[in-house]
Amino acid sequence: MQIQGIQIGSARKALIGGRAILTAIRKTAVAGPVAVRALGLEGDEQADLSVHGGLEKAVYAYPLAHYAFWREQRALAGLAEIDDQLPCGAMGENLTLAGLLEADVWVGDVLEFAHCSLRVEQPREPCFKFNAAMGFNTAVKVMAQSGFCGFYLSVSQPGTLQAGESFVLHPGPRRVSIPERFDAKMFKHMR
């Protein structure tokens, strides 16, 4: 398992649904090392702290393996000819991870890196800004149906991270998996 990419972003206004909305979903790659503190990566911001950021949502991780799926979904939406590039960070994630999927992760698991440790807390719940980031208005629905949501991490041990760095997954109590929690949250929103 390895960090394929590290991304940070600044909150800025973007035109979404005809109105100017503050967002930090667009992340830019950094090589590192990047400092990891209790509230996340140095230089990273969140625009809406009611749904992103904080101690339990300090770092957002997303599996690299899902990028092919999203390229296909964008092509089906007619966006391939416009922009077929989908760089790491396009999902709004801080860490793009190779070798780890949501199905492999449980709340309480710990990702141990060389110089810090991050604890799995919860799945990401997609918001309307994700539709704008992906360029088509059903992206949130596709994420809800696919379960390709990624997951939030808290900082167990501050330190540094670097792109290309390997990590080890240490199992937690294994009571609730990320897919189970995501399905429960999505079901709650669809009622």
Describe the structure.
By secondary structure, this protein is an alpha+beta fold. It has four helices and 13 strands. The chain has one domain: M1 Pyruvate Kinase, Domain 3 (Beta Barrel), CATH 2.40.33. An eight-stranded mixed beta sheet has the order 4-1-8-7-11-10-9-13. Strand 9 and strand 10 form a beta hairpin. The longest helix has 13 residues. The chain is globular.
What's this entry about, in short?
The protein is an alpha+beta fold and 191 residues long. It contains 4 helices and 13 strands.
- Structural classification: alpha+beta
The H-level CATH homologous superfamily, spelled out, is: PK beta-barrel domain-like
What is the mean pLDDT? 89
End-to-end gap: 37 Å
* Continuous helix count: 4
Integer-rounded radius of gyration: 16 Å
SSE succession: EEEEEEEHEEEHHEEEH
Q: What is the highest CATH level, the class?
A: Mainly Beta
Q: Helix and strand layout, with pairings?
A:
Layout: E1 2-8, E2 12-16, E3 19-23, E4 28-30, E5 34-37, E6 40-41, E7 59-63, H1 67-76, E8 95-98, E9 110-112, E10 117-123, H2 128-134, H3 139-146, E11 151-157, E12 159-161, E13 168-170, H4 178-190
Parallel strand pairs: 7-8
Antiparallel strand pairs: 1-4, 1-8, 2-3, 5-6, 5-12, 7-11, 9-10, 9-13, 10-11
